């Protein structure tokens, strides 16, 4: 039987290749007999299977061929082959789309997880009832309410604090309270000079009486009770009787009297007792230790006179401040300096001269400057003027009580003809109120407040004299003594004197004081608003006001003794010229002045611009771009020799091939990362680096 009769195709040369597999073609006679199809456009399944090796592979290939042979006639025609190719193309396209969907879902999941984590932290932070500031835990939103916690070692039983172990060991059914009551150290109290004129509410807080005599004579007794008793012939019409363990002691003004039984104790302590044995003889001081003093009552102030007090708000005050030229610990006279030689004309250096603002009063040398304080509706603006820097002032503004207590500080160049007009602002910064002063109560640290009488000041002006002694913060030693004088007529402030253990003696003379109203020029809202960052540059050629002891040349102070015959007029004239030159240079633009292009053009992958800025500075900028495959790099750097600032940025981008899916998602080329750095030698931290993951922002925007 021939091969045609057996149903096999005759051996023919290799037919066309499809998918890398060569197959035979069916005979024309057989194919025409079977269906009239063109044998050149058909493939027999059996011919293909003969060329497939391996049983497992043969079964897999046969299953696929049966799927292609849709009419089950044992041959694969062109239409069936085209359907197979279209299926392959479709599957590859769907697989590509699937990868885009997988990547998009992965990014979406990452953004979702990041958002959930961020929201979790935000919710946790919002639900916090406390916050930590300076290693101290406060109630959230307050800078004074410290968090109080219960003791793990002690418990309160029937209003008595006892060890917790004793409370736990007690029988719950036993009505007897636990023993072992906790003992605490006793508070000595607030020391205050004692007089029978003190209010009765203050006398009720008296717990200890201290009498100090000449030499080492001292006596202290506990006070069990006090009483104010009317007595004819007394200094103020009443006396105070203090009940002590030694007996009753009577205080009339500042004079002590007592019964004869108490005299023995005073004699044994070293005091001189009168012949009647009912009073002390000689000089002595009487002090009292009080549990608490609600109000600051000056000791010795007559009852018909008002307490010293500044207005709470809405006033202005101009001061002239005196600082010592030789404070404690100073190596020499800080008000003197040796000016350097003039490098312009070769003039030799002058002798040691006084810095502008130096004054001598009664043989004592002082450095002076002026301050203006404006208080409007609780907001405080303080202006400081130094003699070395005419036309400039330092400004500090603090918000009203209850605000965030942030202090905004900046420097202004003002119009000397109209001081309320600021020509330019510079050197802006913001800092917080020191933690030790937030919520501080003055009465908590007062050690003494005394009325010393009426003094005659310069010019024959009469003023009441008060002295306040205040303890410093817990981490500092010593006390601060403040002497205050106010007018005997209208109680307005006249002068202040501060004796500080570190700064020495400071004096402040009140030049002007008065109330403010809503129409006062000093009450303008604009004066209490801090300048924006854009309106407050750092001028390299303008002196930054820091201290009245600083000189314009920027040289460090050279402490030395000033020759009494030296004349500082030449140095002052020179300083004034330097100040005028710097103001004119700043007004002409300073580091933002006009420029002239020296070079501008490409160089490799970069573009450079080099400018010349009047009078002698260079300004440069460079921008470079490069691409590595789909990743693009862009960098910029700029700087100048005037401010010595250098800043630059580097951006990493990704190019996205556009197709229907990317267009549907709105995706295009975007930056993955942008990092910027700034070098500024005029600040404490000259290097500032900022990096931004911009692809996260891009995906969040899309989602």
TrEMBL record:
Annotated SUPFAM superfamilies: EF-hand
Matching InterPro entries: EF-hand-dom_pair, EF_Hand_1_Ca_BS, EF_hand_dom
Top-rank lineage group of the source organism: Eukaryota
SMART domains xref list: EFh
Region (Disordered): 1-21
GO MF terms held by the record: calcium ion binding
Domain named EF-hand: residues: 56-91
Bilayer-crossing regions: 97-124
UniProt keyword terms in alphabetical order: Calcium, Membrane, Transmembrane, Transmembrane helix
Name the UniProt record assigns to this protein: EF-hand domain-containing protein
Organism from which the protein derives: Gonium pectorale (Green alga)
């Amino acid at each position: 039987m021939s091969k045609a009769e057996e149903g096999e195709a005759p051996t023919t040369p290799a037919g066309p290749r499809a998918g890398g597999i060569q197959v035979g073609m069916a005979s024309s006679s057989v194919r025409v007999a079977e269906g009239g199809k063109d044998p050149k456009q058909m493939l027999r399944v059996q011919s293909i299977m003969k060329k497939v090796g391996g049983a497992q592979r043969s079964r897999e290939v046969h299953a696929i061929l049966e799927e292609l042979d849709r009419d089950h006639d044992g041959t694969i025609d062109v239409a069936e082959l085209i359907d197979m190719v279209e299926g392959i193309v479709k599957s590859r396209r769907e697989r590509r789309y699937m990868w885009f969907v997988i990547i998009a879902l992965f990014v979406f999941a990452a953004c979702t997880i990041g958002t959930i984590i961020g929201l979790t932290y935000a919710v946790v932070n919002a639900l916090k009832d406390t916050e930590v500031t300076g290693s101290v835990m406060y109630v959230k939103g307050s800078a004074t309410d410290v968090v109080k916690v219960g003791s793990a070692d002690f418990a309160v039983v029937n209003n008595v604090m006892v060890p917790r172990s004793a409370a736990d060991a007690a029988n719950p059914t036993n009505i007897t309270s636990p023993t072992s009551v906790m003992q605490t150290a006793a508070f000595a109290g607030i020391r205050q000079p004692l007089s029978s004129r003190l209010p009765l509410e203050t006398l009720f807080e008296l717990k200890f009486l201290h009498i100090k005599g000449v030499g080492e004579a001292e006596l202290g007794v506990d006070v069990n009770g006090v009483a104010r008793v009317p007595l004819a012939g007394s200094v103020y019409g009443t006396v105070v009787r203090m009940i002590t363990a030694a007996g009753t002691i009577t205080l009339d003004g500042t004079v002590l009297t007592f019964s004869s039984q108490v005299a023995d104790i005073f004699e044994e302590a070293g005091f001189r007792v009168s012949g009647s044995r009912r009073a002390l003889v000689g000089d002595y001081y009487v002090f009292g230790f009080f549990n608490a003093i609600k109000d600051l009552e000056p000791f010795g102030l007559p009852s018909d006179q008002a307490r010293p007090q500044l207005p709470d708000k809405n006033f202005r005050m101009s001061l002239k401040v005196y600082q010592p030229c030789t404070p404690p610990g100073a190596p020499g006279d800080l008000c003197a300096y040796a000016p350097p030689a003039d490098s312009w004309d070769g003039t030799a250096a002058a002798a040691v001269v006084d810095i502008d603002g130096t004054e001598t009063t009664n043989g004592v040398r002082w450095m002076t400057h002026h301050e203006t304080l404006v208080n409007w509706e609780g907001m405080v603006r303080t202006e400081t003027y130094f003699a070395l820097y005419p036309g400039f002032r330092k400004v500090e503004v603090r918000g009203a009580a209850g605000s965030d207590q942030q202090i905004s500080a900046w420097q202004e160049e003002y119009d000397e003809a109209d001081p309320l007009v600021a020509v330019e602002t510079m050197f802006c910064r913001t800092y917080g109120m020191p933690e030790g002063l937030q919520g501080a109560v003055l009465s908590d640290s007062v050690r003494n407040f005394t009325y010393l009488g009426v003094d005659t000041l310069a010019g024959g002006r009469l003023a009441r004299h008060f002295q306040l002694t205040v303890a410093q913060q817990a981490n500092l030693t010593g006390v601060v003594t403040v002497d205050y004088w106010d007018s005997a007529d209208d109680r307005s402030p006249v002068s202040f004197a501060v004796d500080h253990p570190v700064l020495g003696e400071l004096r402040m003379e009140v030049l002007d004081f008065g109330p403010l109203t809503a129409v006062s020029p000093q009450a303008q809202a604009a004066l209490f608003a801090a300048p924006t960052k854009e309106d407050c540059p750092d001028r390299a050629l303008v002196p930054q006001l820091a201290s009245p002891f600083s000189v314009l040349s920027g040289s460090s102070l050279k402490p030395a003794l000033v020759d009494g015959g030296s004349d500082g007029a030449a140095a002052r004239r020179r300083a004034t010229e330097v100040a005028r030159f710097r103001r004119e240079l700043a007004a002409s633009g300073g580091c933002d002045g006009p420029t002239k292009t020296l070079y501008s053009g490409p160089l490799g992958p970069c573009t450079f611009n080099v400018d010349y800025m009047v009078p002698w500075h260079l300004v440069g900028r460079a921008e470079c771009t490069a691409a590595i495959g789909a990743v693009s790099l862009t960098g910029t750097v700029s700087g100048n020799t005037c401010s010595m600032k250098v800043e630059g940025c580097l951006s990493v981008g990704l190019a996205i091939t556009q197709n229907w899916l990317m267009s549907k998602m709105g995706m295009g080329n975007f930056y993955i990362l942008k990092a910027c750095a700034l070098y500024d030698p005029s600040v404490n931290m000259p290097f500032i680096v900022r990096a931004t993951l911009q692809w996260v922002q891009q995906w969040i925007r899309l989602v």
